[in-house]
Amino acid sequence: MRLRTVFLGILSLGILLGSCAVGYGLSFLGGDSPMTAPHVRIVHLDGMIADPTKVVAKLTQARDDSSVKAVILRIESPGGAVAASQEIYQAMLSVSATKPTVASICNLGASGGYYAALGARKIMANPGSLTASIGVITQFTDAHELMDKVGVRMETVKSGKLKDAGSPFRAMSPQDRAYFQGVVNDIYSQFRADVLKHRKVDTAALDTLADGRVLSGSQAYAAHLIDTLGGLENARALARRMAGLPADAPVVDDTPKASFLVRLMEQQADGIGKLLPTGNAPVQFRMP
Q1: Domains of the chain by range and CATH?
Q2: 37: exposed, middle or buried (C-beta count within 10 Å: 0-12, 13-18, 19+)?
Q3: Which of 20, 215, 221, 256 is the most exposed place for a label (fewest CB within 10 A)?
Q4: How many Cα atoms within 13 Å fall on the side-chain side of residue 252?
Q5: What is the mean pLDDT of the chain?
Q6: What pLDDT shows up at residue 284?
Q7: Are the beta carbons of 41 and 32 closer than 8 angstroms?
Q8: Who has greater pLDDT, 8 or 161?
Q9: Please, which contacts does 275-278 make with residues 24 or more away whose CB atoms are closer than 8 Å?
Q10: Torsion sign, CA atoms 237, 245, 73, 101
Q11: Could you say which of 96, 104, 111, 129 is catalytic?
Q12: Is 19 tagged catalytic?
């Protein structure tokens, strides 16, 4: 009886996982089948920005698809890596050069998320969303006093005096700090220049706004950092109008309709991957 119960349990689990896998596959083969009629495409930018490959690929595909008449970049991101944010921004600019684009900020489109939005022809945000946060940051852990207490010392052999700048095994020197501040200032100037390029913001006003502060959607609208207020339905309507499409023109969302279990398994696998050792990490400059 016990053996029969175990067998039935394994069989049930196998059927459940098989069903999830089939459902996940059908999400790409069925509901997300290629649309040939003129339509609006929604591309999602979710979570911390680290690897821009998928988002850039989707934006490029939408740019090159003649049936796509307008693109909405739906943003739900606090920002992330600088260069990755810039790649998505550049991809948005490329799409904007050939067809209407709208950046739609849901709850959060700050820092690198806002940088990506700058590539759109129009930026829309919910009044209570959080956006802007125009700034750059890098942080370091200083554990040398703790190591001194436990009698652990790191011996370093380096090719240049700045090669171990930011090391947690020694105090940061004034030279180290000046070096990192220079890099941060340079990246910040790139961000600020792109804001000035795309937004009708007075330079003096931007000096106040671009200090890393987060603004609500309403505040960002008043400061001319976004074009209009509204949610996703408003963004859909705006994209249709900009493209000259009828009010009932189809909208295709790029999000695959995977089952909850499949998404949970993917998230768990991603979490395990982040815990695996990857060697000494380089200094990270980010737009949080």
Answers
A1: 36-256 (3.90.226.10)
A2: exposed
A3: 256
A4: 22
A5: 84
A6: 56
A7: no
A8: 161
A9: none
A10: negative
A11: 111
A12: no
| CA dihedral sign, ordered 270, 275, 276, 282 | positive
Amino acid type, 104: S
pLDDT at 35: 78
User: What's the distance, Cα to Cα, between the start and end of the chain in Å?
Assistant: 57
pTM of the model: 0.79
Q: How is residue 38 written in tokens?
A: 């003129």
At position 9, the amino acid (one-letter code) is G
d(CA 29, CA 43): 18
Active-site residue, selected from the candidate residues 54, 158, 161, 163: 163
- Residues 260-283 pLDDT 10s: 555 556 555 554 444 444 334 445
Catalytic residue at 99? Answer: no
Which one, of 130, 112, 137, 126, lies nearest residue 195 by Cα? 112
CA 261 – CA 188 distance, rounded (Å): 41
